[in-house]
Hints:
This protein is of the alpha/beta class. It has helices at 41-53, 72-77, 197-205, and strands at 3-5, 12-14, 22-24, 55-56, 97-99, 106-110, 116-117, 134-136, 145-146, 159-161, 167-170, 183-185, 193-194. Strands 2-12-10-8-6-5 form a 6-stranded mixed beta sheet, with no helix packed on it. Strands 9-11-13 form a 3-stranded parallel beta sheet, with no helix packed on it. A hairpin with a 6-residue loop joins β5 (97-99) and β6. The protein starts with a strand and ends with a helix.
Amino acid sequence: MGIFTVLSTPLCLLFFCHCLKTAFSSSIHASSFSTTHLCSHEEAFALLQFKTSVSIGYPVAGSSFRYPSYCDDLLYTNYSKTESWEGGIDCCSWDGVSCDNVTGHVIALDLSCGLLSGTFPSNSTLFLLRNLESLNLAFNFFRLSKIPPEISQFTRLKHLDISYSRFSGQVPAEIAHLPKLVSLDFSSYYCNLILETTTFKNLVHE
Length: 206
């Protein structure tokens, strides 16, 4: 039975490892927005470059990676949200992409259960989405990639979900300095992430 803890701070943090049976509670809900404006060429290009940097499909056989039952509909059809991402089409209409209804900037990206497989490098073009407020990469397969310290470039980020996506290593201290962050989900089956005490305290007290 897990330990359920509610933090009495502005930040909600969820870090659940099945092997430790410990959890810090969080709830992440990415809002969806409609838009009447085309997204910028730069942001569309950044998304298309990210699409080409990852593979689409199941993880390699024997990887022990498990998808949750609510991903089943996508698994059965082997469909990735990024399949709708094509040049010449307003990126605000792409699956998983939400834009501000005034500026047209990409402000939310939900690629959960996206069948994404590959590494997540420090020069990922997702870091060019400077207006991003919500990022959900849950239930993908990033092959034990480290969380890049460049995550600090998301200065407007409020919600971050990288649960069950096979990130590994030490959570960068920079993540504690995102000024608008209110929810963060690190949940994992395998406890591959290390959250230093100092970083955790900074997350709670920022």
